[in-house]
Amino acid sequence: MNNRIFKKSIIVLLVVLLGGFGGIVADRYIFPYLSSSKLFSKYDFFKKFTEDVTVINKTEQIFVKEETSLSKISSQVSASVVNVLSIQQVSNKKMATIEPINGTGIIVTSDGLIMTYVSAIIPEFSEYKVLTSDGNYYDAQLLGTDTFSNLAFLKINASNLPVMPVGNSDDSKPGEKIIIIGNNMGYYANRYASGLLSNFNPVFNLSGKAISFSDKLEGVFQADVPFMKDYIGGPVIDYTGQVIGIVGSIEKNGNVEYFQIPSNKMKEVIERAISKDFTSNPSLGAYYLPLTKSQALINQLKTDRGALVYSSSGQQGLAVIAGSPAQKSGLMINDIIKSINGREIDLKNSLPDILYQYKKGDEVELTIVRNQQEIKIKVNL
User: Fold this and answer.
1) In the CATH hierarchy, which top-level class contains the domain 66-274?
2) CB-based contact 237:244 (threshold 8 Å)
3) Helix (H) or strand (E) holding 248
């Protein structure tokens, strides 16, 4: 009798346990699943199973305003941007005072070395002021202008200034987004613009002429940024917050063209400016065409590398400047300069860039092709 009651109790207990477990499974999984289907979701009985469901995995979309991101990137550089004021010193007090010129500059050393592009200031003006991001005004001295790059350098007496972070321009590729900063108004206020790094133009020369000049920087960035004239002398920034160039301008054939000097070329000039070395730039004194595949085809040349000594008029005196190191060495029009001291000239290593590694008075050996014959000549720069 007792065994029979015990067995029935066990059976009842198992039924209760299995039923409870089944109810939990049905409540947590089966009914919510059925309630989400089109067939059962219309019945009120199933709707209640979705009312208190806790979502464990939730995916959120986060939208970041690009303007905010640009501001954060620019803030790493913006404090190093300054306003440079060029003021003409008038000796005759009866003369009307000419309105000052405001331009953009960048702090390159913490003790007050300022870099800008020459067209952002007026070199003929004899007095300069620099306004920094902390609201202070400083008297500035124009140390000099680098004839190779047209970069101008001023000095103020200050310390612990915020210095621009300089990046590797060789890592910058066409199509990347960039930011530029200008500060050329009558008061300190940074202005910002963003755009695309359109391309690297290896044959763009700062000679201001249709052909290249051996003593001027060659190879610049060109960017798709509006109102570039408002940013001359200002930094070009990539999306890591590094300065990859400086904005410049030059007049060619009556038109103003804007460009950006890459930071790796800029660094070499800064090194000379720090040592106040503005008079030892080398000079060759030759006009030329940087050879490309197109130039080689047009001129029926066997090589597409090097620098073709050239004048559109075909005159020797217009291709090689009289009295220049090039003329004294015997360099001739239509010569192709292949290398300098064994370093080959091509679109990545231009004639001016290689020459800038030397100083005035250095002797170099040019390997040239003349009348399809390769010869070597010595040049005292």
Assistant:
1) mainly beta
2) yes
3) strand 243-252
329: pLDDT strictly greater than 90:
yes
Residues 191, 195, 199, 203, CA torsion sign: negative
Mean pLDDT of 352-363: 96
Q: Please, which pLDDT band fits residue 122 given cuts at 50, 70 and 90?
A: confident
**DSSP calls for 130-162:** EE-TTS-EEEEEEEEE-TTT-EEEEEES--SPP
Residue that is written with structure tokens 């060759």 in the block: 284
Q: For residue 141, what are the contacts with CB-CB under 8 A and spacing of at least 6?
A: 128, 154, 155, 156
Cα distance between residue 167 and residue 244, in whole Å: 5
In degrees, rounded to 5, the angle at the alpha carbon of residue 19 between the alpha carbons of residues 17 and 22 is 110
Which regions of the chain carry the CATH code 2.30.42.10? 287-380
In the chain, which residues fall in CATH 2.40.10.120? 66-274
CA distance 90 to 96: 8
Pick the CATH number of 287-380 from 3.60.40.10, 3.40.1170.10, 3.40.1170.60, 2.30.42.10: 2.30.42.10
Place of tokens 């009348």: 371
Q: Which pTM value belongs to this model?
A: 0.80
Give mean pLDDT, residues 128-137. 93
Coil, strand or helix at 264: helix
In 3D space, the residue among 117, 85, 340 whose CA is nearest the CA of residue 220 turns out to be: 117
Q: Is 95 exposed, middle or buried (0-12, 13-18, 19+ CB in 10 A)?
A: exposed
How far is it, in rounded angstroms, from Cα 79 to Cα 38?
61
In the chain, what is the straight-line distance between the N-terminal and C-terminal CA atoms, in Å? 123
Place of tokens 């790059």: 149
In this structure, the dihedral spanned by the alpha carbons of residues 96, 92, 87 and 144, taken in order and rounded to 10 degrees, is 140
pLDDT over 90 (residue 96):
no
